[in-house]
Design goal:
The complex is a heterodimer.
Chain A: H1 2-7, H2 13-26, E1 33-37, H3 40-44, H4 47-60, E2 68-72, E3 84-87, E4 91-93, H5 101-111, E5 120-122, E6 125-129, H6 136-139, H7 157-162, H8 167-175, H9 178-188, H10 200-209, E7 216-221, H11 230-237, H12 239-253, E8 257-263, H13 267-283, E9 298-304, H14 313-320, E10 344-348, H15 349-361, H16 363-367, E11 377-384, E12 390-395, H17 400-407, E13 417-422, E14 428-431, H18 441-446, E15 455-460, H19 465-479, H20 485-502, H21 510-524, H22 528-532, H23 535-553, E16 566-570, H24 580-584, E17 590-591, E18 599-600, H25 610-614, E19 622-626
Parallel strand pairs in A: 1-2, 7-8, 7-10, 8-9, 11-15
Antiparallel strand pairs in A: 1-3, 3-4, 5-6, 11-12, 13-14, 13-15, 16-19, 17-18
Helix pairs in contact in A: 8-12, 8-15, 9-10, 9-12, 11-13, 12-15, 19-20, 19-23, 20-21, 21-23
Chain B: E1 3-8, E2 11-16, H1 21-27, E3 51-56, E4 59-64, E5 75-77, H2 81-95, H3 102-111, H4 130-138, E6 144-147, E7 154-157, H5 159-169, H6 180-192
Helix pairs in contact in B: 2-3, 5-6
The chains are: A alpha/beta, B alpha+beta.
Chain lengths: 648, 204
């Protein structure tokens, strides 16, 4: 019955609602359903194999008809993936392997018994946790945008309709004028999630008021920050939400064509969004006269060729036009003159995904979440030296401390927190004293970092901050388009100077020279990439100046990280002559004679750190030395170790 | 086109809509240094040496004058401590490539730039793009283009086109602020059609 209706498309808002009811009626909320995360990161941890074995096992146990399997997008808790959640009980199992599947089917599905060993354990909670929503990683989040990822199959438009999908579009088209939609988005104070934080409503209004008849809406899915993958997870896991937001935006500004600029390194996102477009067209939710509103809209997917700079709005549009992806030098806003010189609204994936929520629940609801200047939630990609790596969505205004400790579970290995790097490569590093900072666009900028697209890299005490700056400047040097001098040449020289400092070749005056280059890049670069490129240096200098000075003046790396400034040394008082370091040393630089204190030949040592890693913790004889000479080797006659006979 | 009145370095300048600040300054005889600008070519905004300070409705910002369009009552300053400092750094960065470029040397003198402030680079090219854009926009031949990206970016003649077009043209040669362009052509020529004993390739 439903199928027949689809053939003739959903023609009116009433038909859409009726069709939705039909889907819900057919779904038995008590029927067991196994959801399995199946995003790109999930595949890397083996969710593909798990999916196959679930299907086989259900078949084998004769349960295929009685149990639904839903392969969803990323759930966010990637540290413990692949994740299975079994409904209706919401039993959550982590780090599943195909070997666990027979037991899950026979125990949990058939017998309704919870398998203890697959449950989540968390040091902050003494008991094992059964339900996904009670896991500390999830409990402190507010997953408004990202939450649906775990409950729908991104390839199924019916799944999206079942959770109320396209009702915001239907509402916009049938109950609201374009101006009202813009007014609502303006009132919500939604700001761009891609990095700039520009108010979306004002951007839309500018385009709507521009005189040209042909306008465009564009999704920026060229996510390129190292370690950031929230846009990928959204596009893979909930593509219809982005399509719906985009269509509402197109209606608001009066565009009839939309583009999704997605990097080609995201094949699953490309696949899922293409399926979503096809399905939406089939259902009449894209195309001509959508839901009898007289509004036409089509969406085209464009795959980027992998240049980071194409995330910059004008470079992205130049690339869309089929030219080399370089930013435009003109001082004209692209919402007035953008793609093909026409008014174009470009928003990031996450920004578009927020739009249906705002339309459905209202601007006032949205604006009550967050801080003064930053409303709603933000998805962060929590990576680095953190226990719970993954994607987290929190209300704006949550403190860095809560994100890192309550959700992220703190720093692994008993190490000390040193800094959090936010905002992608051109963001900045904030030290411990800023952990109380509430996340928000203005708050982060004021502290010397930025929101960016939501990258959050946690650094521990073993991280050298000069090297962090060098790393990000190297990334940006690589990704600079090379058009303007302050960025291309400025970064080239900054990288050289920073590399020299980390290699112990730093000179007096280097910091000042880096500051001059930073000013030139920030003030004179053509686009946002160059203007923000010095941030990694400036923020680390602001908070960790002593580390720069130690490298330059004392040739010492306080974090004992920079290879050229570190020497490995065996503490004669601790060495027990076990021979392990000598055996493992790839450079044969250790004299590991039996019953003799081992000695590293500093000339031969390549500083690979193997000895440091293999020396048994109970001895702890290997040390790193920086900024001071290595003590002379123990004289031959004092090297003999007389092992005490084991006392009773 | 409507007339627009603006102020550059304290002088009232009469211009027309659509003109750039650089054109307005030039029309009034006010000098702003340029490297990648050419009157026959579309504004490029690459070298950033023509950076100026504009004051518009109470806001002061730095913009490059070769791209920024004139506005009514705009106040423009072509020199300030900050502008000079940025220009000096830009010249020094470029002198790491082409320390002997006469154009750069003149600018270096004006802005007190040191030619050895930064470590020397192997390529003389300063990526002004004059040759590339002149060939594409004026000659419509595209015999030379940019290849690669960022710090690896360089100019390169396309041998198949260059062999046919360049010998009779060479109009880009005098545009080059360094000696690099000619060298690149000679190299392309030598590689494309090895000629045993005509002109030595080393002649620049």
């Amino acid at each position: 019955m439903n199928k027949a209706k689809i053939m003739s498309q959903l023609k009116t808002p009433a038909e859409l609602e009726e069709f939705r009811k039909g889907i819900l009626l057919k779904r038995d909320p008590n029927k067991p359903c196994i959801t399995l995360c199946s995003g790109s990161a999930c595949h890397a941890t083996g969710s593909g194999e798990v999916a196959v074995s679930i299907e086989e096992e259900l078949e084998k146990q004769g349960l295929s008809a009685e149990v639904d399997i839903r392969r969803t997008g990323c759930h966010g808790f990637c540290e413990r993936g692949p994740i299975i959640v079994i409904y209706p009980e919401e039993i959550c199992y982590l780090q599943i392997t195909p070997e666990d599947v027979p037991e899950i089917v026979s125990q949990t599905i058939k017998e309704k018994k919870v398998i203890d060993r697959l449950l989540c354990t968390d040091p902050s909670v003494s008991e094992k946790i059964i339900h996904e929503s009670e896991i500390p990683f999830y409990k402190h989040q507010e997953r408004l945008v990202f939450g649906s990822n775990g409950s729908i199959d991104p390839k199924s438009i019916d799944d999206y309709l079942a959770i109320g999908g396209y009702s915001a579009l239907s509402k916009s088209l049938s109950e609201m004028s374009a101006e009202q939609v813009i007014e609502e988005v303006k009132k919500s104070n939604l700001r761009g999630r891609g990095g700039g934080g520009f108010p979306a409503g004002s951007k839309w209004e500018g385009s709507r008021n521009a005189p040209e008849e042909i306008k465009y809406v564009i999704v920026n899915a060229d996510e390129g920050d190292p370690g950031a993958y929230m846009d990928r997870a959204l596009l893979e896991g909930n593509p219809h939400a982005i399509l719906e937001g985009l269509t509402i935006g197109a209606y608001a500004i009066g565009a009839h064509e939309g583009y999704i600029y997605v990097r080609q390194e995201y094949p699953l996102a490309v696949e899922n969004v293409n399926i979503a477009i096809m399905k939406a067209e089939e259902y009449g939710l894209l195309g001509k006269n959508i839901l009898d509103s007289g509004f036409d809209f089509k969406v085209i997917v464009h795959q980027g060729a992998g240049a980071f700079v194409c995330g910059e709005s004008t470079a992205l549009m130049t690339a869309l036009e089929g030219r080399v992806g370089e930013p435009r030098p003109k001082y004209v806003r692209s919402n007035i003159k953008g793609l093909w010189e026409r008014p174009s609204v470009l928003n990031n994936v996450e920004t578009w995904a927020n739009v249906p929520l705002i339309i459905n629940k209202g601007a006032e609801w949205f604006a009550q979440i967050g801080t003064e200047g930053s409303k709603g939630t933000k998805i962060f990609s929590l990576v680095g030296k953190i226990n719970n790596t993954g994607l987290v969505e929190v209300p704006m205004g949550m403190t860095l401390h809560d994100i890192i400790y309550k959700i992220g579970g703190g720093i692994p290995g008993g190490k000390k927190f040193k800094a959090v790097q936010t905002g992608g490569p051109s963001g900045g590093c904030l030290p411990e004293e800023h952990l109380g900072l509430q996340v928000g666009f203005d708050e982060l900028t004021k502290a010397g970092s930025m929101m960016g697209s939501g990258g959050m890299i946690i650094l521990d005490e073993d991280t050298c901050m000069v090297d962090v700056a060098r790393y990000f400047i190297a990334f940006l040097t690589d990704e600079s388009c090379g058009k303007c001098v302050p960025c291309r040449e400025g970064l080239r020289q900054m990288l050289k100077i920073l590399t020299n400092i980390t290699e112990g070749k730093g000179k007096e005056g280097d910091i000042e020279l880096l500051e001059v280059l930073s000013e030139t890049a920030m003030e004179a670069s053509l686009c946002a990439l160059g203007k923000s490129a010095p941030n990694p240096f400036l923020s680390t200098l602001r908070y960790f100046r002593d580390e720069y000075e130690a490298h330059i003046k004392e040739k010492r790396c306080p974090a004992l990280y920079c290879k050229e400034l570190v020497a490995y040394y065996i503490d004669p008082g601790k060495c027990k002559a076990c021979g392990i370091c000598a055996k493992k040393c790839p450079a044969e630089a250790i004299d590991g004679a039996k019953k003799m204190i081992h000695i590293i030949d500093q000339e031969k040592c390549t500083k690979c750190g193997t000895c440091f890693e293999v020396c048994p913790t109970k001895f702890g004889a290997l040390t790193k030395i920086s900024g001071e000479p290595v003590p002379p080797p123990v004289p031959e006659e004092e090297r003999i170790i007389i092992r005490k006979s084991k006392k009773k | 086109m409507s007339e627009i009145l603006l102020q550059i370095d304290g002088n009232e300048v009469k211009t027309t809509e659509g003109m750039t600040v650089l054109e307005a300054a030039q029309s009034a005889g006010i000098f702003i240094p340029t490297l990648c600008h050419h009157e026959k070519l579309e504004p490029f905004g690459g070298c950033r040496i023509c950076i100026v300070e504009v004051e518009d409705r109470g806001w002061t910002k730095l913009v490059v004058s070769c791209v920024y369009l004139v506005e009514e009552n705009l106040v423009v300053r072509t020199r300030s401590e900050k502008i000079d400092r940025i220009r000096k750094t830009i010249i020094e960065l470029l002198m790491a490539h082409a320390p002997d470029s006469p154009q750069l040397q003149v600018l270096a003198k004006e802005y007190g730039a040191e030619k050895d402030r930064f470590e020397k680079e192997a390529s003389f090219c300063i990526h002004c793009g004059l040759c590339v854009r002149y060939c594409a926009e004026v000659k419509k031949k595209n015999a030379i283009g940019f290849v690669d990206r960022g710090i690896k970016k360089e100019i390169s003649f396309i041998p198949e086109i260059a062999i046919k077009e360049c010998n009779d043209c060479k109009e880009c040669f005098p545009l080059c602020p360094t000696s690099y362009l000619q060298a690149a052509f000679v190299l392309t020529e030598a590689l494309a059609i090895p000629q045993p004993s005509t002109e030595p390739a080393s002649e620049k």
